[in-house]
Each structure stands twice: as C-alpha cells, then as structure tokens.
Write a structure and sequence with these properties.
heterodimer, A: alpha+beta, Ubiquitin-like (UB roll), B: about 750 residues, alpha+beta, Aldehyde Oxidoreductase, domain 4, seven-stranded mixed beta sheet, about 25% helix, binds FE2/S2 (inorganic) cluster
C-alpha cells in the first residue's frame, strides 16, 4: 500500500492503495467515481477512457503510480453542469441505447475534438475505433461528434 | 374513444414501500430532494411536490401536477424506460415534461411480464399501460365532477388540466389528485382513439440521457453501499469440468481479501427452470474489499478441476418441460463441425412436409443445394454480469441487471430458505442484455455469498469470466435445396437444419406455405456447453441462411430477388399451401415491408460501384426488410448504407425505435462478419476482446435509414426483428461485390481454401 495524491477533476484526492492498482479501480472503488466503466481490463474496449491532460487514455491499464500529478479528467468532471458540447451533442442526437459504453465514447470524442476541432469522417472513425459499442450506436456517435464539432467545442 | 373494461384493481402501490424510498441508491432519485442539474438540452427542471397521491400501481400524482410513472420492465437498452411511460402518459393526458420516470421493483401482484425477452415488453403491456393511464384520467375527471358538482361527462382533460366549459371551472391534475385517489376505480374506461394520441408516435428523448452522458451511477456494477464487499468467482476453465479441490492459503493472505470459500448454487433435486441453468454449479468465491484486489486474489487460487459426469436434467421453460442433457467429456469446435456435417447427410426429424418433395426433386431439371453454418457466439454485454445482494436472517435485497426478475425470484427464495415475500428484487439500468441476462444464476450466486458473509456483497464477473461462463448462442448448420423444372419454376424446397445443442429450424415460416412440395427437417447434437437465447434466437442464423439461399435461387431463375419473394408471398396469400393457420407469418405484412424497402432504397436504380443485397424476415411478430449497399475499397468491403423497412405496428417512440433498428443492423453485420467463439478441449479460445472480435466504429455502415410501415396495428416486437435479416442482405451484397457467395460465418474468415 502507498499513499498517492491525485489531481482528479480539478481536486486533489488522496488514496492509499497498492501502486499497481489501475486507475479504473481507484476511480470506481476508492473514489466512487463510477462513471468510468469496466469493459475488458486489457485496453481493448475503451469503456474506461479518461483524460490524462488532454489525451484520452485507457484507465484499466494505467497504474495509479504512473499518474503522478498529471491532470486527470473523468466523465464526471468533463463539465460542471453536463453541458460540454460533446455531452450536449450526445443528448441532441439521443445516442445511447444501453448507455454503458457512452462515457468512454464521450471521453474519446472530447479528446479528439480538443486536438482536432474539425475532424474528417475518416479521422472520427479512426479516433473512435478503440471504443466498442455492443449496442451498435456507431452511426449516432459519428453524428454527435460531427454536431459537437460544428457547434465548436 | 373506445370503451373497454377496466382491469385495474385498487391494490397496494408497491409491495414494500420501504423499497420505494430509502432503499434505492440507483435509478431515478428525482423523488428525493436532489434535483438534477439540467441544461437546455434536457427537460426543464421540475419542482417536486410536497405530497404524492397514489392513483394505481403505475403512477402517482403530486399536488403540483407532476406525475411519477413507474416503468415495470427491465431496461437493457431497448429504451422501454422511456417508451412504456409514454404510453401511460398519453392516456393519462399529461404533458410529458411533467413526468418523471422511476424503475418499478419486481412486483408480480401488480405487473405481468416484467421480463425483457421475446421483444414483448411493449406488446404485452400495451393494454395495461393504457388502462392505467386512462383509469387515472377517469378518476381525476370524477374528482373534478364531484368538486364542481357537475356531470362527469362534461369534464374535459387536456395536458394535465381538467375543465368544465359551462361553469368555467378548471384545475390542474395536482389540485384534484388527492380527491381522485379516493375515487372508485371505474368498471369501464375510455381509451383514446389512435388519432387522439399526442405522445405515442412522437419522438421523446431517453429519460436517462442526462445521467448517462454525465456518468451518474445507473448500472448494477455501479452499486455502492456502506460496508459492501466485492465478490469474484472462479469457474472451471472448460465445459465438462467441475471443481475437485482448492487451496486458498495464498489468496486469503492477499491484501483486502476477507474470505475464500466454495459455493454450491442449487441443491440436488432443485427443480430448475431453464432460466436458472448454469454449466457450473460449484464455484470458488473470493470476497474482498475492492474489485482489483479480488481479481488479483482469484489469480492466486490453486484449484484442481476434474471431469464432470454426464447429467440429464428436466427443466421447465415457460410452462413446457424440457430435458437438458450434458454429455461427459471436453468438446472441440472441429468435432462439432464434423458431426454437424455428418448428421446433415442423414435423414433428420421431419418437422413439416407438404406435397411430395421427394418426387418433385426426382423430376427436377435442376437442383440447387447449399450449406450454411455459424459458430457459437458470446453475448458480450458491455457491462459484465454482476449483482448486488444483501441477505440477512429473514430478508434478501437484490439489486442489479436482470432480464427475468420474475423468474429468478423463486430460485433465490428457495436457495436461501426464505419465503418468497421476503425476497425483494430491484432492477438497475442494464449495460446490454441480448438474452444473456435472462439466465440469472449470477443473482443466486451473489445471494448465496452475501448470506454466507452476512454482509452486503456485489458480485462482479471479469470479462474473461463473462465470456467463458456459457449460455452462448448455439452453433448451427443448415442445408437448403431447391428444385427447378425445365421452365425454371420452383417446384420443390427442402431445408434441413441442426445445431449444437438445438436446431435453428422454423418449419412453418416463409417460404413454407408458398411452395407445393416442401420438406423441413431438423436434428440436434447434445453438448455440455451451455447455450441460451441470443437476440432473436435461431432466427439470428436461419434468416441469413434462408435469405442468401433465396437470393441464389432467384438468380438461377433469372428473377429480381424482390420480385421473386413477392411472387412467393402472393402465392402464400392467395392460395397458401397447407393449413394457413399453421403458416407462421402474414404474407401481406411480409410483402408490405419488401414493397416499402424497394421504394425507399430506389431498388433497381443501381449506382455503379455500389453492390446491393436485399433480405426480409419475420420474427417476434414483426416484419423487417433491409437493403444493404456495399462498396469495395482496396479489396475491403465497406457498408455504405442500410435501408430498413419495418412493420412493428404502432411505433411508440420513433427516434428510439430507429436507434434500435440501426443497432440491429450494426449488430447483425458485426456478428455475421467478424465474431466467433470456438472451443478447444472444452475451453473457449476467446475470452476477451483481443481475440473475440466485435464490430468497431470504422466497420459500421456509414448510413442507416429506417422506415416504418404506418398501419395502426397494436405494437409488436421491435428489439429483435431488425437483427436477423441483415445477415442475408450482407451475404447477398458481398456476393455482388466479390463475385463469391459467403456461406460460413464469420464471413471474414470464409475464404476459399488456398490452392497448391
Ligand atoms: S476496460 Fe479499459 S479498455 Fe476495456
Ligand atoms: S450503448 Fe450499449 S454498449 Fe454502447
């Protein structure tokens, strides 16, 4: 066990965990931030996507000890009132079916738009390819990313 | 308005009122003081009332006119949590923006069919939801009539406002709610005419949308409770094995681990239903403080497994009895496939025979014969199996994702030794179902562990546990034969279909009834790999096989594939072969979706470089036709567009139904093209998404168009029907694009053998 002070959603949060614990479980079990989802645990599905700085990363294979004082953003901290342009676009397009993958999708999409505010269709496809949606909402996801890009994120 | 007899009784609002308030950590907490933060994108913030008045088991009305509607059925992504309350709200005649939705707990006294299965949620509850709304509207009118001392017939109710024109009186529902709750439940109520619907048939956004996009706790896996422990389970690594012994010394000493023990799920002699079944009755449970610690400790377990002996169990399934036989030994996909091929050359069980197929084939000028197959599939709901249980001496509280709370409750009660009424089951939103959560052994597992630990426990499966646990889509095989005479008329048709462990055959579905000489046979192979319903069971293979075959027959006959199907349907409609009651489809509705898809896809006006395939199928009481447009990019097939035409009767929430239909198309293309679960020595060879391939974003159709037939028929199935036919459309488009027919799923690996 070791103590870590993490910078999550703009707050300094302390946890006492084994250094090899993935951020996914630190967030979910220790910090009760359960918006970040478990889907595979091996960086294959994207359900656990968070931001490290401006980059989308898979939290299931990111150990707590490797995070240091980097800025971590989870779905809960993407916007204060749930009104990030990507979240708004998601609601406008009514993307979710079961909804389970969507936090990860939104985190990947918002990181993409930060780095590339006007992505082409192919760039969207490539960026979103690591996020599985078992319900098959891909066409809506694309539409929502395009809508968010248009409305300027 | 139509006058119908009311079936609403005045019964307790919900079985256990303590559950309605404090017990719920998930679901809609709007009833408590915490109001959602909202943006312009979602419904305006609602003031909560000071007082609620229970009108019936489905709704309560606040003194300020806000209405809470309880949505009875499991929400697995089919959006019933929005569409079921919409039906009620329409009959109640309330403004949708004044509605809040709550998930109802299991209550078999109040609701029927609290099941997410068979695409029946809306269909089975259509009447009771309307009745609940209409009854409440009537009672509100009665209250107003009494308050104003005017005849009830003169009161109108529009958008939550009661008024009496002659006297100029008017009041909101909230003002009359208290009095209405004391009114007699009417013997008869008026239901709206379809033309009067104001919510049904309009698109309303997902009531959980805001919570989903902000990452609020909604799912079973998100449940957190004071003092809650996490449990993981180790099951045999292969089907055909069982627990022999285990050494937990190391695991028990690992950080955060509270206990390790084995559990037995069902006692010998317990009369199971098919929904209780599991391949692994004895498991090793690891209980600890956090999920990661439990997952690590599970890896440190030293477990010895041994070969299980043969088992034969009789189980009930929806009132029928079935025998499930699990042979001994470790099975292989190669052996399965060889056996299926071999059985296919023998005579099967005759399921239907019209005319004289043998004679017709004997005199046919040409016979087309083709074989089709598909592998096992794992459901792979994005949210793995999990359940929360808090079992005390005399009470069990269960909370989590299940498609069949109603059918699991007796098993949990019996296993725990508690009376049924002391078992309370609540449902969370569920991260996908697809049939997997019809089989609720994980609920019993969680309950048994909690009972033993005397603590609240959340059982969580890892992805690997989930994918290797069983209840898979069976592996199937089918042979189709068509006989043509000299003039290229179709004179004989033969389908023989089998599988491990069930056959995918529907003997009385199209084209049965449309061909004079018809033969349908089936066969099965027993297996110890457990299987279950997977979105549109059996249809999810046989539709694609049949629709690819019909495409090939049409081509051989020199006919347009849509014309060919329509001609057969015309025959089935005008002069059906066999007893028309036996034919399991309505030829006119079937033809209807083909006509619609032909029109909407501009069939026949082919763009160059775009390859099209068509398919149509009937299942779960609904009809779906799809046209798939494919282009080739550097030898890779790209699905450009899917056009779907659907007849599922009245569409309650069109945009949400469109979403389901889009998902069905993506799901069907994905599984037919990419997915497979194979076995070696009883063990699945794919246990996570590195080896198990699911369709990804870039492989999905670029565009999906969905059209509904507007025929005013009461709603039929919607969750499953858009899934099966697309596999046929895909195969047919692939043929046009590549010049080669694809017969064996997943198509991505259905390549011609290398030569030389
Ligand atoms: S849970 Fe991290 S990528 Fe799947
Ligand atoms: S919405 Fe269900 S997995 Fe994406």
């Amino acid at each position: 066990m070791a103590k870590f002070t993490l910078n999550i959603n703009g707050k300094a949060l302390e946890v006492d965990v084994d250094p090899s614990t993935p951020m996914l479980w630190v967030l979910r079990d220790h910090l009760k931030l359960v918006g970040t989802k478990y889907g595979c645990g091996i960086a294959q599905c994207g359900a656990c996507t968070i931001h490290l700085g401006d980059t989308a990363v898979r939290s299931c294979m990111l150990t707590v000890s490797s995070v240091g004082n980097q800025e971590v953003t989870t779905i809960e901290g993407l916007s204060e009132h749930g009104d990030h342009p990507v979240q708004k676009a998601w609601l406008e397009v009514d993307v979710p079916q079961c909804g389970y993958c969507q936090a990860g999708q939104i985190m990947t999409a918002s990181a993409l738009l930060k780095q590339n505010p006007k992505p082409s269709e192919t760039e969207i496809e490539m960026a979103m390819n690591g996020n599985i949606c078992r319900c098959g909402t891909y066409t809506r996801i694309k539409k929502a990313v395009q809508l968010a890009a248009e409305s300027g994120s | 308005m139509t006058l119908v007899t009311s079936k609403m009784g005045r019964r307790a609002f919900i079985k256990n009122t303590s559950l309605a308030g404090g017990g719920l950590v998930l679901g809609f907490n709007l009833l408590n003081s915490c109001k959602p933060k909202t943006t312009e994108a979602v419904v305006a913030e609602l003031e909560m009332p000071k007082e609620w008045y229970e009108i019936n088991g489905y709704l309560k009305i606040g003194d300020n006119g806000v209405v809470t509607i309880l949505s009875p059925n499991p929400e697995i992504g089919q959006n019933v949590r929005t569409s079921m309350p919409m039906i009620l709200a329409d009959e109640l005649e309330i403004d949708w923006k004044n509605v809040v939705v709550e998930q109802a707990p299991l209550n078999t006294d109040l609701y029927s069919w609290q099941v997410a299965g068979g695409s029946r949620s809306i269909m089975n509850s259509w009447e009771s939801l309307r009745m609940a709304g209409a009854t409440a509207r009537h009672m509100l009118k009665e209250a107003a009539a009494q308050a104003w001392q005017v005849p009830v017939g003169e009161i109108s109710a529009v958008a939550g406002v009661l008024s009496h024109e002659a006297s100029g009186n008017s009041a909101g529902y909230g003002e009359m709610a208290s009095l209405a709750s004391q009114m007699e439940v009417p013997e008869e109520v008026e239901l709206k005419d379809r033309s009067e619907f104001s919510i049904i048939g309009t698109s309303r956004k997902n009531v959980d949308g805001k919570k989903i996009v902000t990452g609020q706790p909604l799912f079973g896996i998100d449940v957190q409770r004071e003092g809650m422990l996490i449990a993981g389970l180790a099951h045999p690594p292969a089907f055909g094995m069982k627990l022999k012994s285990f050494d937990a010394a190391e695991a028990k000493n690992m950080p955060g681990i509270r206990d390790v023990f084995s559990i037995k799920l069902y006692d010998e002699g317990f009369k199971k239903s098919a929904f209780h079944h599991t391949a692994f009755n004895e498991l090793v449970a690891v209980i600890g403080e956090t999920t990661w610690e439990v997952m690590q400790a599970k890896k440190a377990l030293k477990i010895e497994w041994e070969q299980a002996s043969e088992s034969v169990e009789s189980m009930s399934i929806l009132g029928r009895e079935m025998t499930v036989k699990h042979p001994t030994g470790m099975e292989n996909s190669d052996t399965h496939n060889a056996k299926l091929k071999e059985l296919n050359t023998r005579k099967g069980r005759v399921a239907r025979k019209d005319g004289n197929p043998e004679a017709a084939f004997a005199k046919a000028a040409k016979i087309i014969e083709r074989n089709y197959s598909c592998p096992f599939l794992a459901h792979n709901t994005m949210e793995p199996m999990n359940f929360f249980a808090n079992v005390t001496e005399d009470h069990a509280e269960l909370l989590g994702p299940t498609q069949t709370p109603e059918w699991m409750e007796p098993a949990v009660a019996e296993r725990l030794g508690l009376p049924l009424e002391n078992v309370d089951i609540q449902m969370t939103r569920q991260g996908g179902g697809f049939g997997r959560r019809l089989y609720g052994h994980f609920m019993v597992e969680a309950a048994v562990i909690s009972q033993k630990m005397k603590a609240p426990v959340k059982l969580v499966y890892s992805r690997e546990d989930d994918m290797s646990q069983g209840m898979y889509r069976p592996s199937y095989y089918a042979t189709y034969r068509a006989g043509l005479d000299e003039d290229n008329n179709l004179i004989a048709f033969h389908v023989k279909a089998g599988g491990v462990p069930e056959s995918p055959l529907f003997a009385n579905r199209f084209p049965a009834g449309a061909i004079d000489n018809y033969l349908a046979e089936d066969y099965t192979i027993d297996s110890n790999i457990t299987t279950g319903a997977f979105r549109a069971p059996r249809s999810n293979f046989i539709a694609g096989a049949e629709q690819s075959f019909l495409d090939e027959v049409a081509e051989e006959m020199g006919k347009d594939p849509i014309d060919f199907r329509l001609e057969l349907l015309q025959r089935a409609k005008e002069n059906p072969v066999g007893d028309p009651e036996t034919n399991d489809y309505d030829a006119a509705r079937y033809a209807g979706v083909l006509d619609l898809v032909r029109e909407k896809s501009n069939w026949g006006q082919n763009e160059s470089g775009v390859y099209r395939g068509v398919s149509a199928y009937f299942c779960h009481n609904s009809y779906v036709a799809q046209v798939l447009d494919m282009v080739m990019d550097n030898g890779n097939p790209i699905v450009q567009k899917v056009t779907s035409a659907i007849d599922c009767g009245i569409v309650v929430n069109p945009d949400a139904a469109t979403n389901m239909a889009e998902g069905g198309a993506v799901d069907g293309i994905g599984h037919a093209m990419y997915s497979a679960l194979t076995f070696k020595d009883g063990a699945p060879e794919q246990t996570n998404f590195d080896r198990y391939r699911l369709i990804r974003h870039s492989e999905a159709p670029k565009e999906i168009e969905v059209h509904f037939v507007d025929n005013g028929i009461d709603p039929t199935g919607m969750g499953e029907p858009p899934f099966p036919p697309i596999m046929g459309a895909l195969a047919n488009a692939l043929y046009k694009a590549t010049g080669r027919r694809h017969y064996h799923q997943p198509f991505i690996s259905d390549r011609p053998p290398l030569v030389g």
